[in-house]
Design brief:
CATH topology of the largest domain: Rossmann fold
CATH superfamily of the largest domain: NAD(P)-binding Rossmann-like Domain
Largest sheet: 7 strands, parallel
Radius of gyration: 20 Å
Shape: globular
Number of helices: 12
Number of domains: 2
Distance between the termini: 61 Å
Oligomer: single chain
Number of strands: 13
Low-confidence stretches: none
Bound molecules: ligand G4F
Strand content: 5-15%
Mean pLDDT: 96
Strand order of the largest sheet: 3-2-1-4-5-6-11
């Protein structure tokens, strides 16, 4: 049988890299849509997918250019398309809401429009977000909880979610959104709070830093492991009928608890190092996210395999390795000087 062919946008990111690995392990032919600048600077941009480069096919295109997306869809047929690419840092969306809206809303619209025009049979997955719940109307949040986004990012995700549903309803395409709560890993970007914390823990432990400045320590998130969540994406696309589903761990922890646990991994007390700094507060905060994913668990037979504690442990351990190398390099540079 011919292998299934999947296109992933955002393949170089945390979720894209884990999803590519997962699909390859299932025998898929995996293609990625990446920006031309990434192809021109593979050393820096492909750090999460270096080990996959000889097993995947990359196409240069921009989510800001409909012709570039149309070009790919006119030359390659796909069975499944996972649209993960986005400006995904909420903090940055306050700094430049226009770029976030442009990439996230138009990018999603161009993908959907291109598929409708050229390959409407291709199944489409949209990476929705628990940020869409924003100022939450109920606890825990589930599929029927109304959205009340609190950032340009959240607003752009609601628009992407609505676009995805509209293509499903208007044109009968298999278009589905995962409403995913926060998911982290050692491949997380350093701007997100979890990685910022685990990286600081490792640097402090190695004597490379002395403090960690963060914003709101009381914000609560439902944090899972990205590896678990990409399995749920794939399962959602395998269903007979498209249905938007919440995927979450069902546990909520504060940023303070994350700090406490991460510093404790190296025997330190976070209170000696963590400083709250107004600079990292958001103009409008999402205070408390916790998901009810019972529908997804039943429909997909999905269960997360990682606990919160295992997630923190794995992230700290990876950052200790990296900081160890950085400390070695710093000391050998000092010896040469
Ligand atoms: O790690 P964060 O930046 O993630 P956030 O805003 O929850 O968004 C992430 O999860 C969403 C799913 O719900 C995704 F859609 C989105 O793309 C992204 O992956 O911040 C988490 C919390 C926030 O309440 C923030 O205010 O941590 C708080 N926080 C406190 N100090 C901080 C900091 N966040 C960051 N990034 N940096 C801080 O110093």
């Amino acid at each position: 049988m011919k292998p299934k062919k999947a296109l992933i946008t955002g393949l170089t990111g945390q979720d894209g890299s884990y999803l590519a690995e997962h699909l390859l392990s299932l025998g898929y032919e995996v293609h990625g849509l990446v920006r031309r600048v990434a192809l021109e600077d593979p050393g820096r941009r492909f750090n999460r997918i270096e080990h996959l480069l000889d097993q995947i096919t990359l196409h240069a295109a921009s989510l800001e250019s409909y012709p570039s997306i149309f070009h790919i869809f006119s030359r390659h047929q796909f069975d499944e398309c996972y649209h993960l690419a986005a400006q995904s840092f909420v903090g940055e969306s306050f700094a430049d809401g226009f770029s976030t809206m442009n990439t996230n809303i138009n990018g999603t619209h161009y993908m959907l429009a291109g598929l409708r025009e050229l390959q409407p049979q291709c199944k489409f997955y949209f990476a929705g977000s628990s940020e869409m719940f924003g100022k939450v109307r109920e606890v825990p949040q589930k599929e029927t909880t109304p959205f009340h986004p609190r950032s340009p990012y959240g607003i752009s995700k609601v628009a992407g979610f609505d676009l995805t549903r509209n293509y499903r309803e208007a044109y009968g395409m298999f278009c589905v959104s995962g409403i995913f709560f926060n998911h982290e890993s050692p491949r997380r970007g350093f701007e997100f709070v979890t990685r910022k914390i685990t990286s600081a823990v490792a640097h402090i432990h190695q004597g490379l830093a002395s403090e960690l400045r963060v914003g709101n320590l009381e914000a609560r998130r439902d944090w899972g492991h990205a590896k678990d969540y990409v399995r749920a994406m794939h399962l959602m696309v395998q269903r007979e009928e498209p249905e938007d589903l919440v995927v979450a761990s069902g546990e909520s922890h504060s940023v303070r608890e994350f700090c406490e646990l991460a510093f404790a991994e190296v025997g330190l007390d976070y209170r000696d190092y963590v400083i709250q700094d107004e600079k990292f507060y958001r103009p409008a905060e999402v205070e408390h996210l916790i998901g009810d994913s019972s529908k997804a668990r039943e429909a997909l037979g999905w269960e997360p395999q990682y606990t919160f504690q295992e997630l923190v442990k794995e992230m700290v351990s990876r950052d200790l390795e990296l900081a160890g190398k950085a400390a070695e390099m710093a000391s050998s540079a000092g010896a040469i000087a």
